[in-house]
């Protein structure tokens, strides 16, 4: 992102791969919980316990996977955008509870770049912007774009980059 891009007033979106990374995380968590529910059903059937808790949990985990693995990532991708200007950072998020945040660059205290194992698998990273009041996250950018965004925000906010 160069200065001409900074002066562009358009909002930017996350990388589409963020939907896949979120779905994989959800699949792993709900898959484990589904296996536990199936394990309970097997033990309950063998010991003649009541089966309804296992069936209820199994149904809940299936609905949870559909919501958190398919619907919510698509909504988060569609309704999250951000813009970096010389004097402020603007973040728009939410589809039911809408949040519009503007942070003056003078309030930014720290800018961090994070990339867990699943984000790295998809070549993505997360930029965290720390102020005295809150920590804002832009999760789901390509690694190179996230590094550039971190440097640009750090430069505009006059925050030292300890990595360089």
UniProtKB/TrEMBL annotation:
Keywords annotated in UniProt: Membrane, Transmembrane, Transmembrane helix
Matching Pfam families: bPH_2
Domain of life: Bacteria
Keyword Transmembrane helix: yes
TM stretches of this protein: 21-46, 52-73
Domain YdbS-like PH as annotated: residue spans: 77-153
Protein name in UniProt: Membrane protein YdbS with pleckstrin-like domain
Organism: Paenibacillus amylolyticus
